[in-house]
Known about the structure:
Blueprint (H helix, E strand, L loop, with lengths): L1 H12 L1 H24 L2 H15 L3 H11 L2 H26 L3 H16 L10 H30 L9 H41 L1
Helix pairs in contact: 1-8, 2-6, 2-7, 4-5, 5-6, 5-7, 5-8, 6-7, 7-8
Organism: Pseudomonas pergaminensis
Keywords: Membrane, Transmembrane, Transmembrane helix
Protein name: Stage II sporulation protein M
Amino acid sequence: MTFLHSAFTLIQQHRRAFIVLNLAFYGLFAVMMLVTALTPELHGVFEPNIDKAFAEPGLFKMAGDIYASKNLPLAMAITFLVNLGVAVGMTTLPSLLIPFAGIALTLYRGFLWGVMFSPIGADRATLIPHSLTLLIEGQAYVLAAFAVYVQGRMWLWPHRYGLGSRWDGYKAGVRATGRLYLLVTLALLIGAVYEALEVIYLMPLLV
């Protein structure tokens, strides 16, 4: 509970940045959904790469096979692990080397989601239940990007946080990221449970 309180305190201290990141991510997502709905050929630019990722041997193909088998516990587990791996690998780790880099990569994910999940095609009704999955998991990615923001600020302006050097700020930023990842993990756990239930039981009724 202490760590959760600390995470929420960080959000409160930087609430303007947190709000801006939410608006940027979900706003970009919504705009690209609309743009793709008006120009459906844009979807075809990215779809082959997505299909290729699920067809070639690897974690994404494994996830697809698990969902096809309708093994609910494994589907929840693989969904959580894949999304956590994306949050860490795409947002957090790059920012340990290049401050704030993960924010741009997270916004690119919002852009890509808007293209891929635009309501076009015969299966567009499945977006009704899947929109909640995107909302929950999107929030996890926004939280990871927010951690990148806090980490970068602590590194650039350590004296504002009562720290003596940029190295102290870097270490404090990593610790802050760890605290915020409690919220990232919680959101991804909730998202994984819902997504597995949704894809296995709800989507087939709408296809």
